């Protein structure tokens, strides 16, 4: 207000009584009666000075100990007196604004910006009681409070805490809903999915998706190499017994079986390959034109060292002793290319099939004793094996006709023999042959002249020096 108006207000407010000129904290000067005021110029000077020096729009207000000009005066003193502001009517009556008695906070009431009059009926939000001067709000529901209620969504629910039944001035309700897709980061699928009976949920690069179910039982999902998975064409068993393998008994049908069949006729033959623990491999395969239902049943034991696996022709196999056995004979040392031949029940000899021994008589043999056999050609074949022996000799007797006996033998056993007669002045060829096993000594042809002492076994009657010869061939 203007300084002159503030001064006049203060002058008019000073009571004649001395006590009225002394204001306490939280008080203003005011003339509340028509009593005569006495001037106290000396007491008014400080107040007038403050009023005249106050800023525009300020009034003097007594604080705890000093006067000060303020635009926001505070009336009353906490713990002592309730502050109030009264307005007297031009004719009669007074309206006083004051807070309710009790412990209060710091509350500010805003006055509307438009002009008007406070109503006293219950139809307006704020009502001024004409008798008591109290402000009330009958329609605000402040006495008991209004409820905050909710309507939950199927997937989203809300829990109201505190005292929701009396929390509001006016009743209100929350209706929860859902918009968009919940992201993967928040535990959602980031996609609007459509269910498929028997389908599988999988992840794309940014969202979940569903692999539609399959109408074929026992198919299994296959990875898609960082893309959409798919169902296998082949079907698989739901269970597998111990000791079985998964094998395709027919196209795209996998079964668990203890008797799998490998390979397909008209395609690739069956084969099982075993790798060595360090290197190499061994494969077992059937012939391209395999027999029908050929089955080999193995023996129940490991067999004995040196035994052979033998079949009975019906698929049953057993361990048997190999044909022959024992030690190699001390009479011979087997060499490469020979075969093992039993020379007796416990001895094996190395034999070279086709071994030959040949002897050609190198000089005439005189038959000069009619009681003695004289040896012609002979073979040093040894004492092992079976030998086929064949030879011929050329005989003559210068003394005349003579009877002569010829034998093929080993000095003990005669293989073959004959008797012949010579004619004086002529040469007689004789051929002889036979087979002898395990000869006791060299095989030879021997001749005895039964008639004269002038007979001979010739070596070169033909002039070719091979008239008397013996050849021995081992046949086993």
Describe the structure.
With 476 residues, this protein is mainly beta. Among the domains are: 3-97, no CATH class; 118-174, no CATH class; 356-474, Jelly Rolls (Sandwich), CATH 2.60.120.760. The chain has two helices and 33 strands. It has helices at residues 3-13, 41-53, and strands at residues 59-62, 67-70, 76-77, 81-82, 85-88, 94-97, 127-128, 135-136, 148-151, 172-175, 200-203, 208-211, 219-222, 230-235, 245-250, 253-257, 271-275, 281-285, 307-311, 317-321, 327-328, 339-342, 347-351, 356-360, 365-367, 374-379, 386-397, 402-409, 414-422, 427-437, 443-449, 455-458, 469-474. The strands form 13 sheets. Strands 24, 25, 27, 30, 32 and 33 form a six-stranded antiparallel β-sheet that branches. Strand 13 (219-222) and strand 14 (230-235) form a beta hairpin. Helix 1 (3-13) packs antiparallel against helix 2 (41-53). The longest helix has 13 residues, at 41-53. The model is unreliable at 1-21, 30-42 and 325-330 (pLDDT under 50).
């Amino acid at each position: 207000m203007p300084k002159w108006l503030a001064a006049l207000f203060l002058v008019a407010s000073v009571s004649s009584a001395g006590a009225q000129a002394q204001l306490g904290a939280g008080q203003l000067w005011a003339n509340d009666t028509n009593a005569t005021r006495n001037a106290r110029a000396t007491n008014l000077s400080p107040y007038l000075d403050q009023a005249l020096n106050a800023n525009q729009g300020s009034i003097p207000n007594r604080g705890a100990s000093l006067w000060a000009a303020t635009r926001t005066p505070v009336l009353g003193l906490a713990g002592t007196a309730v502050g109030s502001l009264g307005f007297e009517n031009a004719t009669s009556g007074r309206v006083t604004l004051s807070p309710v008695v009790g412990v209060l906070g710091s509350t500010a009431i805003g006055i509307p910006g438009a002009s008007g009059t406070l109503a006293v009926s219950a139809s307006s939000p704020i009502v001024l009681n004409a008798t008591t001067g109290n402000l009330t709000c009958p329609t605000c529901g402040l006495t008991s409070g209004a409820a905050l209620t909710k309507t939950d969504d199927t997937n989203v629910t809300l829990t109201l805490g505190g005292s929701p039944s009396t929390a509001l001035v006016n009743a209100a309700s929350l209706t929860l809903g859902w918009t968009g897709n919940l992201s993967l980061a928040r535990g959602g699928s980031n996609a609007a999915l459509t269910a498929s009976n028997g389908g599988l949920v999988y992840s794309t690069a940014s969202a979940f998706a569903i692999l539609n179910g399959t109408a074929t039982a026992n198919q299994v999902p296959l990875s898609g190499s960082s893309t959409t998975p798919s169902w296998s064409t082949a079907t698989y068993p739901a269970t597998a017994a111990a000791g079985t393998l998964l094998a395709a008994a027919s196209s795209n049908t996998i079964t668990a079986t203890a008797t799998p069949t490998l390979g397909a006729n008209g395609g690739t033959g069956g084969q099982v390959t075993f790798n060595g623990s360090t290197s190499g491999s061994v494969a077992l395969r059937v012939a391209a034109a395999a027999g029908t239902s050929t089955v080999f049943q193995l023996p129940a034991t490991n067999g004995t060292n040196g035994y052979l696996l033998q079949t009975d022709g019906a698929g049953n196999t057993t361990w048997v002793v190999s044909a022959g056995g024992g030690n190699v004979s001390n009479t011979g040392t087997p060499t490469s290319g020979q075969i093992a031949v039993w020379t007796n029940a416990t001895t094996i000899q190395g034999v070279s099939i086709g071994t030959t021994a040949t002897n050609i008589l190198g000089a005439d043999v005189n038959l000069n004793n009619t009681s003695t056999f004289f040896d012609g050609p002979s073979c040093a074949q040894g004492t092992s094996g079976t030998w086929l022996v064949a030879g011929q000799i050329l005989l003559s007797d210068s003394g005349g006709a003579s009877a002569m006996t010829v034998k093929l033998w080993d000095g003990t056993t005669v293989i073959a023999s004959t008797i012949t007669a010579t004619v004086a002045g002529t040469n007689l060829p004789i051929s002889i042959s036979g087979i002898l096993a395990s000869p006791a000594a060299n095989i030879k042809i021997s001749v005895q002249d039964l008639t004269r002492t002038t007979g001979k076994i010739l070596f070169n009657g033909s002039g070719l020096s091979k008239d008397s010869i013996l050849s021995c061939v081992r046949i086993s």
